[in-house]
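Cross-posting from the modeling subforum.

Setting up a comparison between two proteins and wanted a second pair of eyes on the formatting. Protein 1 (sequence, then structure tokens):
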Amino acid sequence: MSEQETRDRGEMDADESGEVEAVESDQQEGNSGEEGEVASPEDELEAARAEAAANYDRYLRSVAELDNYRKRTVRMRTEAREDTLRDLLLQVAPVLDNLHRALNQQTQDADSLKQGVELICGQFNEVLKGYGLAEIEAVGQPFDPNLHEALAEVPSAEHEPGTVMEEMEKGYKLNDKVVRASRVVVSKAIEEK
């Protein structure tokens, strides 16, 4: 190696060793700073206890808040149910009044009594429609086990097999959900002998 190369190499080694010394001195300063900030075990324990107490307090508050929410929800549901029932009864009361009037009527005419009862049924159906209740159409419709409950099957030449011939009890839907299925008589094919 030439003398020039040896000098250059020595300068590079000196530069590198200077950088290493600077890094080591920075690390030592950082360590000495951290050592001064390290808390004693008693302080750490006290801080952990304070944090645990704060967490426990938050937990108790959350549990109480959840319990209050549940109670409030139950109370609101009960009040909503009572309000709905009260509204329904206020609308049904006039229908009941009309039924009592029809019963107290001194007429011997069966046709006028029938017309009065039909009017009352119409009035009652309108009240129920206001709450989303609708009658299920059954007579003349194909039997649907989701909408109809078959009470009997009767042979019929007039109806297609599986058609509702007669409705024994009306069925109802509440907002498109079946509340009560129609109880029906269904036609079946006549058996040939």
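Protein 2 (same layout):
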Amino acid sequence: WDLQAAEQLPKSLRVFYAAVIRNLLRDAWRRLNRELLSAQQQQQQTAFSHSFMNVALNIARVSQCMYDYEDGIGVLEHESMDRIYSLIAEPIQTA
């Protein structure tokens, strides 16, 4: 996706594409959460270990964060790195 090409698109198309991506992300999170919750509730044996599933979930979290708040490549601020660090190195503790 070329940034210059995106800037040349009419605003209505950019808004439409953003909504499509948002809906795809929402649906993917719903499926992921449903699968993880189902496996936990049923104490199912899965093809993947618990630690692998946590890594996959953390990668999804980082991807979502980078999509929402940009990737930090074009911006020389430390804000993106701080967000990534907080997602991976300091995960939210669950009860």
